[in-house]
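Dear colleague,

Thank you for sharing your sequence with our group. We've completed the structure prediction you requested, and as agreed, I am returning the results in plain text so they can be pasted directly into your records. Please verify that the sequence below matches your submission; if there's any discrepancy, let me know and we will rerun it promptly.
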Amino acid sequence: MLVVQRKVGERLVLSGGIEITVVAVQRGGVKLAVSAPKDVLVARGEVHDAVASANAAAAQTRASALPPPRTEEQPSSEDPHDSP
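Please find the predicted structure tokens below.
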């Protein structure tokens, strides 16, 4: 893992056209700006971890535990407007 020290306004440049700029340092937190191509996913670590955990749990679910798939209702062959 690379550990770097940056000041407000300084940036890191990563491959793939990704740039991270330090915007502010305040109250024990750091505000970063991330610039990346649209096809690059950028997510906070806790969000990424929660999604990965949910995906892993979903992959473990047995198909028999899932509700049956929804099907579109087929129109009946009898039309109520055709009755005399």
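Summary note from our side: The radius of gyration is 26 Å.

Kind regards,
the structure core
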